[in-house]
Amino acid sequence: MPYSTQFGDHFYCQTDGRLECGHVFLSGNGLPERWPKEGIFRIGELGFGTGLNACETWRQWQLEARGDAQLHMTSFELYPMAAADIDKALSHWPEIDRERQALVAAWPEEPGGMIDLVLSQTMRLTVICGKAEQTVPKADLAFDAWYLDGFAPSRNPEMWSLELMRAVNDKTKEGGSFATYAAAGFVRRNLQAAGFIVERRPGFAGKREMLCGLKPSLTA
Fold first, then answer.
1. Per CATH, which fold does 14-214 belong to?
2. pTM value?
3. pLDDT tens digit string along 156-181?
4. Strand 210-214 vs strand 3-4: parallel, antiparallel, or unpaired?
C-alpha cells in the first residue's frame, strides 16, 4: 500500500483500489456506456499516482471491440513515481498484469516534464508533471470525463481549490462529466461554483458519499 510522505495519505483506499476505480471513476462518469465506437475519448485525471486508474480503465476499455475509437488519458501529477515503485504497487492486482507490464516498460527512467506514451493502437497515456493549478490551465485539450483523484482534501486542499475546479470545468466539453471519491463540503461547493451540476452518490466500501456530475450543455 503506497503512502505519500508529502501529504500523509495513502494513494488509494485500503479496501481495494482497483474496485474503487470502477465504482467511483468509471461508474461515476457513466463508463463504459459512454465510450464511443469511433473518434477519441479523452479522460483527464488529477493525480496519476501509481497509474492504477489508467491501467484499470485501459483494461475495461479492451473488454469490448471499439472499432476505430481511441482512448487518451491525460494525468496531471506533481510527484511522478519511479517505474520500479509503480511496478511494485500494481503487482498486487493480477487482473491488470498486462497493462502494468506495458506501462512499466514504457515509463521513463527519470520521469518529468510531459510523458507521452502510446501503449497500444487504441490507448495513449500522457502524464504532465508539475503543479496542477499551473499545468491544467495550459492544457490544449477538452476532456469528455475527469477523474478527480488528488489526495484527501484535508491533506491537500490546493488540489480541490475553486481556482483549479474552474480550470477543470474550462477544460471539460459541454455535457462532459467528473467523478471523485471526495465528498467534503468545500469540494462540492467549489465544483458547483466552477459550473458543474453536482450529484451525491454512495461511496465505495461503506464510505457514505462520493461526488459526480456534469458540465451543462449550452442551450440555443
1. Rossmann fold (3.40.50)
2. 0.91
3. 888 999 999 999 999 999 999 999 99
4. unpaired
